[in-house]
Amino acid sequence: MGEPRPPEGGVTTATPTETTPSSGGLGLGSAIALIIGNVVGTGIFLLPASLAAFGTVSLIAMVVVTIGAIAMAMVFGKLGERIPAGGGPYAYARSAFGEFAGFWNAWSFWLTAWIGNAAIAVAWVGYVQYFAQQVFGLNWNSVPAAIVIGLVGLWIPAVVNLMGARNMAAFQLVTTILKFAPLLFVGIIGLFFIQGANFGAFNATDGNWVGAISMAGAVALFIYSGVESVSIAAEKIRNPERNIGRASVIGVLACAVLYILSTVAVMGTVPHERLVNSTAPFADALNNMFGGSAGGILMAACAIISGIGALNGWTMLVAEMPLAAAKDGMFPPVFGRVSRRGVPAAGILAGTVLTSVMLLVGYASENAFNTIVLLASFTTVIPYFFSAAAQIFWLATGGRLVDKRRLARDMIIAVVALLFAFWMAYGSGAEAVLGGTLMLLVGVPVYIWVKSKRGEYGPRDARVS
Description:
Helix content is 71%, strand content 0%. It is mainly alpha-helical. It starts with 27 loop residues before the first helix and ends in a 12-residue tail after the last helix.
């Protein structure tokens, strides 16, 4: 078995298949908060209106998508038991398919993290503007003001992350509770205000109901991005072999309950014709339930908390993936260095700078912003697909201590997860697939440069005995 060559400077680094310490800064509760905080972003606040355009058939689509997301979470849990190493999908792909596949997964996720953060920030700005107008009478609706607000929203989480994992975890836990509780309140209390006439037609599209499910599913697919969060931060998780799986499944189940309950409640309390054109469906639902206009202000506050929490979690992940790859010589060495507080400062700063640039692109054109959202969705799919494929690979070949008693069950779950990832790619659209593929190809010269700087040619053996 070949051994990895040390990086420049003579510092030996761990392979992605080595067991990591179980003394990380994030316990099970913080890990679950990381999953929920990253999955539940600002999209949930517009989801019921987006799905209403397809009719109540969209609820079936949500259930189908939820099954796929849970399967993906279970796969990440199993992979976390096999390889409890930082980088998650990067480590899984590298161990199963070689170092270039690992690099490509790391590159794809890195693109996802900083591009997606720009989309979250742009959506977050709108709620800040609404809240400032309604509560303080401030008109911050100009583009320059929006850019300043967006940059503040990006750099606050960056500062929190630079202060260390424990501070990041505490911030994530608080923001998760503050945003999860009000949304769950709407989802539960709203059930008592439902009126059947508000739901509208089963199929509100011009096509058949099967096509409507596919279209609604393509919208709903994007709300589960982030199920891989804990696996990527494995080195910061206590007892990763156990807690990666538990946190992934519990976190996704919690999000699923929140999504389904709240969507049903909003659809049942806001008339269909009004919901389809709503820009604040949760605010409309609260106003219909209790009267007045306080609902809009409350939901704007929830969206602000939700957005900043999501940015906090994704800012950590934008640095964790290249950190793991850099330790194995697959990313430039600067991404593998940690500060005195134990955080990859260069990765956090580089990711936030790139996100800030992408934020400017988002405000340059409305179409550009839509492209950013779909592009980030496609680049998310690559690590999902390869992770599910890695699990199938090990189950089929009998590697990595396969439990034969659970072989059939684990294989079915992995296949469902693989199909889920494939469907996500399809739902991203042709333009996103083309743009994402081109951005993935840009990574190839980076891989060549990294290898040449290390004086290597050909693959290094990433297998373990």
